[in-house]
Write a structure and sequence with these properties.
Length: about 375
């Protein structure tokens, strides 16, 4: 007890180990290691004894020792319970834990966030590319949620990286498939994947909404799909009117009980959980490198808007609640600009430019010139 010397890794250190009396006559143990000199250790011992005598030592707030891994272990069950996309959170957490698992959560700083981003940018994604700024933002956002949950549970007094700014760099994909490109993809896909692709291309539904479809949600007589609030990412009911070809494809599917899924994996007989491999095979066979399944949703939004459907109706059809998110899917290309100018020119046809500009008609100009020339002779 008291001040003592010890050796660790070939270096001499000093430590303090004291029992301090509390005001209620009970004792609490104080220990501190890795003190460089004996003088500093004696000074530390004297200081804590004086603070204990004055009643100030026991008002200290102890620094939480929980690590990022500890806090994720507490948050993961909540994410699985409350978040439909919890598997995405698990994937992002793997990156966080690879870099920050052993770090004490309350000791994190903005410097640690910058070091994390630098480390992640040195890695490659499954596509062989560098993680995007939006990917890093979502991972940092998850870290903030984990820390905020720890604060709410009393494990941390505050979020140490609450002020960490996100990169917010534009990350808008501009891939839009026209009918010809989609036909190539459709023809190259497996039979079990074809109806899924067609529903995505003609309705703009999200992949998870399609794979989770049950027969009780489909009314082929009326030609609609009805999604309840719990079935949509936007958490509001949505009516989806089917095109004739989608309706025909669904009518050809084998019917089942109301709770039976529409689309089933032919290998397992169960509802599809992941179609990435099947879609990748179809994409490669169609030679559409760089196309993602989610591009079908963007194609629906852009194609529908180009056909003249009001944007408010397109938003209702696709289930976009905010204009900001809708604009990420509504791609305006150079052809759209040229088409707009062509419509303006068509509207201007029949209007005399000289009349619009306030100039006299051309016939009057020629008459004035003839008169002037005649008088000159």
């Amino acid at each position: 007890m008291g001040v003592s010397k010890y050796v660790a890794r070939g270096k001499t250190w000093w430590r303090v180990d004291e029992w301090l009396a509390q005001l209620d006559s009970t004792f609490v143990r104080y220990r501190k290691k890795r003190i460089p000199t004996k003088e500093q250790a004696v000074a530390c011992s004297t200081k804590v004894k004086a603070e204990a005598f004055e009643g100030r030592f026991f008002d200290r707030v102890r620094t939480p020792t929980c690590t990022v891994a500890d806090l994720w272990s507490a948050y993961e069950p909540i994410a699985k319970r409350d978040n439909d996309a919890w598997q995405t959170d698990v994937g992002r957490a793997k990156h966080l834990l690879r870099h920050l698992a052993a770090d004490r959560a309350f000791s994190l700083t903005l410097k640690d966030i910058d070091a994390y981003r630098t480390g992640r940018l040195g890695e490659s994604t499954p596509r062989g590319t560098q993680p995007t700024a939006a990917t890093l933002d979502r991972e940092v956002e998850l870290l903030k949620r984990i820390l905020n949950y720890a604060v709410a549970c009393g494990k941390l007094p505050s979020n140490p990286v609450a002020n960490a700014r996100l990169l917010r760099k534009p990350n808008v994909r501009r891939v839009v498939l026209d009918e010809a490109a989609f036909q190539r993809l459709f023809d190259a896909s497996e039979e079990s994947l074809k109806p899924i692709l067609l529903v995505a291309f003609d309705t703009g539904m999200r992949q998870r909404e399609i794979l989770d479809l049950r027969w009780e949600q489909v009314d082929l007589r009326q030609g609609v799909i009805r999604l309840a609030p719990q079935d949509t990412k936007g958490e509001e009911s949505r009516l989806i009117v089917l095109t004739k070809r989608v309706r025909a494809v669904l009518e050809a599917l084998p019917r089942g009980l109301p709770t039976t899924p529409l689309f089933r994996n032919p290998r397992t007989g169960e509802a599809w959980q992941d179609i990435r491999k099947a879609f990748r095979r179809a994409r490669n066979a169609a030679r559409l490198d760089g196309v993602w399944f989610h591009d079908l949703r963007r194609s629906f939004v852009t194609r529908t808007r180009r056909l003249g459907v009001p944007e408010s109706v397109v938003m209702r059809m696709s289930g976009h609640r905010t204009r900001a998110v809708f604009d990420r899917y509504n791609i305006v290309s150079e052809d759209d600009l040229r088409d707009a100018v062509a419509r303006i020119e068509a509207e201007n046809l029949g209007h005399d430019l000289d009349t619009v500009c306030g100039n006299p008609p051309k016939s009057e100009k020629r008459h004035d010139l003839t008169t002037r020339d005649a008088s000159a002779f």
